[in-house]
Amino acid sequence: MTDDVCHKKEIMAVHDAMDVLNGKWKISIISSICYYNKRRFSDILNDVNGISNKMLSKELKELEVNKLIVRTVLDTQPVTVHYNLTEYGLTLKGIINNLADWGKKHRKMITGK
Amino acid sequence: MTDDVCHKKEIMAVHDAMDVLNGKWKISIISSICYYNKRRFSDILNDVNGISNKMLSKELKELEVNKLIVRTVLDTQPVTVHYNLTEYGLTLKGIINNLADWGKKHRKMITGK
């Protein structure tokens, strides 16, 4: 396989990953559920700055369709709904941790502290 | 630091990283330049499926402002312009490689081959 073909495959693979994780919010939503293991809708809304109720519902549905998260409804009064990562969703943990490390360094670089 | 405060910091750090890398295209553009070390505008346009000329110009400018890439103009006939990652941009290589690995597994999971 030539270098060029190899590079094209790598770039396409990154593109495939971003197709699933696209949009401004998905990675932040996954990180919220990832760090807490299990998270309610209202908690995620609070964790992910600036996201609207409607947008969070849409993004959570897409993540469910892509089998990255699972929604559990508990028969409590009132009903409780929480989300957690599937086995497959947990394979993103490495990427999430890398992004967090990079984000911390980026903030230091920008703010100088 | 309580668990909760620690989680909030991690989630904010992921959010910070995604603020810089946001949008559908930036990570794919960075991966194109990253794998080839140095890339011309027309090459990137070719590598990143579906991106328009106008969108690529805008995204490249934002990446330059964030000091992740640098633009070099060569005095050839016609003039050649190429992009490469800065030292700072190269700190994203780990994340790019992780995304490529994840993307390959995702494609296998979806297509079964």
In short:
2 copies of one chain form a homodimer. In chain A, 65% of the residues lie in helices and 12% in strands.
Structure commentary:
The structure is a homodimer of 113-residue chains. In chain A, strands 1-3-2 form a three-stranded antiparallel beta sheet. With 113 residues, chain A is an alpha+beta fold. Chain A has a single domain, classed as Orthogonal Bundle (Arc Repressor Mutant, subunit A). The model of chain A has no long low-confidence stretch (mean pLDDT 91). Helix content of chain A is 65%, strand content 12%. Chain A has helices at residues 3-21, 26-36, 41-47, 53-65, 87-90, 93-111; strands spanning 39-40, 69-74, 80-85. Chain A binds chain B through residues 7-8, 10-18, 20, 22-24, 27-28, 31-32, 35-36, 47-49, 88, 91-92, 94-96, 98-107, 109, and chain B through 7-8, 10-18, 20, 22-24, 27-28, 31-32, 35-36, 47-49, 88, 91-92, 94-96, 98-107, 109.
CATH architecture of chain A: Orthogonal Bundle
| Major beta sheet, strand line-up of chain A | 1-3-2
Helix proportion of chain A: 55-70%
CATH class of chain A: Mainly Alpha
Q: SS-based structural class of chain A?
A: alpha+beta
Assess the beta-strand content of chain A as a share of residues.
Answer: 5-15%
Rg calc of chain A:
17 Å
Outline the secondary-structure elements.
2 copies of one chain form a homodimer.
Chain A: H1 3-21, H2 26-36, E1 39-40, H3 41-47, H4 53-65, E2 69-74, E3 80-85, H5 87-90, H6 93-111
Antiparallel strand pairs in A: 1-3, 2-3
